[in-house]
Amino acid sequence: MATPPPLPHPKDDPAVHAARTTRAAYLDAVARIRVQGNVTELDRARAINKAWRSTVAEMRGHYRDLTGRRQARLSWLEQQLPIRPDIPADASAADRQVLLAAWRTALDAARAADAEQRLTMLEDAERYGDATTVRAVLAAAVDDSQWPTVERWAAAANPEAGQHFTEWRELRTLMTGASIDNLWVSQAFAAVPKPDESAQLPRLVDAYNDKVMRHNATRARTTPPRALIELAPEETDAGATEAPAA
């Protein structure tokens, strides 16, 4: 499986750019439809409603792309972090039990230690090649959001892992919406307000059909009846594949 690439800054993300472009195109299209001449109120409402629903669906597609890439990268990063027991996939059941017991013992000791003690444990574990203790201490530090401990270890022992830790933290913060940089995303993907024309559409259809039925009731026998209008499923909230965010 290919390694998911790092994500650009939110303001430079292609999904964010695409969402802004989609919104701008929608606003431009609606402005043009509203000033078109020789268009009935009903046809205008249907055109605007279609543009709105298409825009919402398209923006949701962009958002799925963004969140999918974020989640894929986050999952990959989590697999790179040395915060889990390192048990070979081909370990026997007996060996697995021994390794898990050693992990639990190391993790209990790490959780009981304070920040300074954890730094000492890391230094000793690195000196004597005790990878299990290194992972256990880092796991305890991450659980406590004790990032200075992680950063000091990474700077001294594993800069690449330090980069992974930093990216993982930043990406998690972005995904929870706690980062100010996420404003680029929240602004780009803010709900597209439902236009008045969409709300008025059922009333306009009913009015048109009432008029058609009156015409059909009084038409001459030689005059073909006019067809009633029935909104397509994708024109309504109930039948829309992507229910728009109002």
Key structural traits:
single chain, 246 residues, disordered C terminus
Q: What is the helix content?
A: 55-70%
**Radius of gyration based on Cα positions:** 30 Å
DSSP, total strands: 0
Class derived from helix and strand content:
mainly alpha
Figure out the total of helices: 9
Sheet-strand content, in percent, reads under 5%
Q: Calculate the terminal CA-CA distance, rounded to whole Å.
A: 39 Å
**Overall residue-averaged pLDDT value:** 92
Order of helices and strands: HHHHHHHHH
Q: Low-confidence stretches at least 5 residues in length (pLDDT < 50)?
A: 240-246
Oligomer: single chain
* Biggest pleated-sheet summary: none
Based on CA inertia axes, which overall geometry fits?
elongated
In words, what does this structure look like?
The chain has 246 residues and is mostly helical. It is 67% helix and 0% strand. It contains nine helices and no strands. The protein is elongated, with a radius of gyration of 30 Å. The model is unreliable at 240-246 (pLDDT under 50).
What would a concise description of this structure say?
With 246 residues, the protein is mainly α. It is built from 9 helices and no strands.
Helices and strands, with pairings:
Layout: H1 14-34, H2 41-80, H3 93-112, H4 115-128, H5 131-143, H6 147-157, H7 159-176, H8 183-188, H9 196-218
Helix pairs in contact: 1-2, 2-7, 2-9, 3-5, 4-5, 4-6, 6-7
